[in-house]
Design brief:
Number of domains of chain A: 2
Distance between the termini of chain A: 37 Å
Radius of gyration of chain A: 19 Å
Largest interface: A-B, 63 and 45 residues
Distance between the termini of chain B: 38 Å
Oligomer: heterodimer
Radius of gyration of chain B: 23 Å
CATH architecture of the largest domain in chain A: 3-Layer(aba) Sandwich
CATH topology of the largest domain in chain A: Rossmann fold
Largest sheet of chain B: 2 strands, antiparallel
Strand content of chain A: 15-25%
Largest sheet of chain A: 6 strands, mixed
Strand order of the largest sheet of chain B: 1-4
Order of helices and strands of chain A: EEEHEEHEHHHEHEHEEHHHH
Strand content of chain B: under 5%
Order of helices and strands of chain B: HHHHHHHEEEHHHHEHHHH
Number of strands of chain B: 4
Number of helices of chain B: 15
CATH class of the largest domain in chain A: Alpha Beta
Shape of chain B: globular
Chain lengths: ~270, ~350
């Protein structure tokens, strides 16, 4: 098989008259750190759902690790190693932080999912504790998720996704709503992931994108605009066109030229996350 | 989840402290927590075991009924409280168990514990056959399907009168150990101990199930089934298995009921029992396993103990109790315990990040 972990060919999703994702072809090599960027409504989150299987494609093919998974259910794809964090946090609010991670960790081989004996479940518990330490939530493991701050919930999402022992990790705006300290911790954590984990990340925070990504894909109105190394994408005029009026300044300048516009844009992003 | 208005302020407050404070006291290990819970549980079981020495025969009989129906309530709680499957027809499996135990006692042997074990098996098989369809449905459809299953069960009990005795019911011979019937003078106490022993075993088994990774997965399905799918679970399988298990425990309770009550009738598989048990769950607090037992205790005491004195107004009193409970105890009687332990836990939690015991 080819060394591409994920291959999309002609992937399309329509909602009535609206085409949210329009014939996207994309090949993500094993071990790459791939970023997906584009203005709001470009179809990034929808594309993720088509990859995880939480939404069926209208047409096209999704190939994961050489197997056509287009017609495969979400849980089957998850078991093959596709894991995700969602833009809209979807944790188990009435459970403790630790149990949220255990939910994923116990499903893995050796997690003692079928055992009534606490001894057999220790591996999953240790793994959960390790992951919570990695994301900086070790001292919150007994807290209920409903008591966590927004940033902490995002960190927990990442811990849960990693507890699935993914081969392909899809992160949908993991840094949204995080403080600078939290997001730099996140970047460090993601950078330290082994090459066996392939990363595809949707992120508005371009500091995070350019710190992590080895390749960048730009989506615009559901269509793939460009895929290339970060520098090439940064220089592309087509990309600049796509972003015009929707936060181009935020993309290419550290200090926004028109503060009012950029500021308004940022708040909506935070609100969405 | 609603997005907080100022995420950054929220986020800044805690993680800073979180990262500097070296890992605080290690989390309480599950085994230690289990042992702490084992002490009160043992005390309760011991007290219950000595009850026949202190109480008169009538209260012991009532307590026996509470244990029988309590176990049934816990089995329904596995579905309703733990997995989020609000079944309206759970009494069907209780009825299947009761008739099985009755028929085994009549035609084969009333020797304990053969009838109740076969009753448990029959309840599980009935759940296996009917659950496959029921568990695939969601929401109102699940309610309707389980309601139909319950009605079919009680109708079958009524129609197959060659086997079940129809509306006259099925008389069940009294319990025996080996070939000996219980000594007439101590029959009530022995019956009580027999029921208590089965109850303890059944409750412990259900407690283990709810505490296991399987039980955690059930709670995950209750809270967010879609998310469980994206974690690689197949929710149907879990729901089906717990449905079968709950059917088995309901059958076990039904079998006990047949041997204790010594008469089984179609009502015992009917909607009224399912409904009153749901009421017990709400009263006691669904999702905890001991709450439903307390709820069932209230129901049985009001209906069976005070019921005769109320001149048929028992159900009315139950209705009033229910309405009051929903307003006063939104999380049931188990919620009262939360009020006792909740604040303590909360302070401990809030102290931890500030208390920097770096060593």
């Amino acid at each position: 098989m080819s060394d591409h972990l994920l291959e999309l060919s002609g992937v399309t999703r329509t909602f009535g008259a609206l085409t949210a994702v329009d014939g996207v072809d994309l090949a993500v090599p094993v071990g790459s750190r791939h970023a997906l960027i584009g203005p709001n409504g470009a179809g990034k989150s929808t594309l993720f759902k088509l990859v995880t299987g939480s939404m069926p494609v209208s047409s096209g093919r999704v190939v994961f690790d050489g197997t056509d998974v287009t017609r495969m259910s979400e849980s089957h794809r998850a078991r093959r190693g596709i894991s995700q964090t969602l833009q809209h946090s979807s944790l188990f609010l009435s459970q403790t932080v630790e149990r949220n991670v255990l939910m994923a960790a116990q499903r893995q081989p050796g997690g003692g999912r079928r055992s009534l004996l606490p001894r057999r479940q220790r591996a999953a518990r240790d793994r959960a504790h390790e992951l919570l330490t990695d994301v900086g939530l070790a001292n919150r493991s007994a807290a209920l998720v409903s008591a966590l701050s927004h940033g902490e919930r995002r960190q927990l999402e990442v811990a849960v996704a990693l507890a699935c022992e993914p081969r392909l990790l899809l992160l949908d705006e993991p840094a949204a709503g995080m403080s600078p300290a939290e997001s730099s911790r996140l970047v460090g954590l993601l950078k330290a992931l082994p090459d066996t984990v392939t990363l595809v990340i949707v992120e508005h925070d371009l500091d995070v994108v350019f710190a992590l990504a080895t390749s960048v894909t730009v989506l615009h109105l559901g269509k793939l605009l460009l895929t290339g190394p970060p520098d090439e994408v940064r220089a592309s005029t087509a990309v600049q066109e796509a972003y015009l009026g929707t936060g181009r300044e935020a993309l290419f300048l550290d200090t926004p030229a028109s503060p009012s516009l950029a500021k308004g844009d940022r708040t909506t992003e935070l609100g969405v996350g | 989840m609603s997005a907080p208005a100022h995420p950054s302020t929220d986020a800044d407050a805690t993680p800073g402290a979180g990262s500097t404070a070296a890992a605080p006291a290690p989390p309480v290990s599950p085994t230690r927590r289990g042992l702490l819970g084992a002490v009160p549980a043992t005390v309760v079981v011991l007290v219950l075991a000595f009850v026949p020495f202190f109480l008169a025969e009538d209260p012991v009989t009532i307590l026996t009924r509470i244990l029988v129906f309590g176990m049934f309530a816990v089995s329904l709680d596995l579905l309703v409280g733990i997995t989020g499957l609000p079944s309206l027809g759970h009494a069907a499996y209780f009825g299947v168990g009761a008739y099985t135990a009755g028929l085994v006692a009549v035609h084969w042997t009333p020797s304990a514990p053969v009838p109740v074990l076969l009753a448990a098996g029959a309840g599980a098989v009935a759940a296996l056959l009917t659950g496959w369809l029921a568990v695939r449905s969601h929401g109102v459809f699940f309610l309707m399907l389980t309601l139909a299953i319950g009605e079919i069960a009680s109708q079958l009990a009524l129609q197959l009168d060659d086997i079940t005795g129809g509306s006259n019911g099925l008389p069940v011979p009294s319990i025996r150990f080996g070939s000996e019937p219980f000594d007439a003078d101590f029959r009530i106490a022995y019956t009580y101990w027999y029921v208590l022993a089965i109850f303890v075993v059944g409750f412990a088994a259900m407690w283990l199930i709810s505490r296991s990774p399987f039980g955690l997965a059930l709670r995950g399905i209750r809270d967010n089934e879609d998310r469980m799918r994206s974690l690689g679970y197949t929710p149907f399988r879990y729901k089906y298995v717990v449905y079968i298990l709950a059917g088995g425990f309901a059958g076990l309770a039904g079998g006990l009921f047949a041997q204790v009550n010594r008469l089984v009738s179609p009502v015992d598989a009917g909607f009224a029992l399912s409904a009153i048990t749901l009421l017990a769950l709400v009263l006691g607090g669904a999702g905890t396993l001991w709450g439903p037992v307390l709820g069932m205790a209230v129901v049985v005491i009001v209906r069976d103990y005070y019921g005769p004195d109320l001149g048929g107004h028992g159900p009315l009193v139950l209705g009033i109790v229910f309405v009051v409970a929903v307003y006063v105890l939104p999380r049931g009687m188990a919620g009262l315990a939360g009020l006792l332990t909740g604040p303590r836990r909360r302070t401990r939690r809030s102290i931890v990040p500030g208390e920097e015991r770096t060593s």
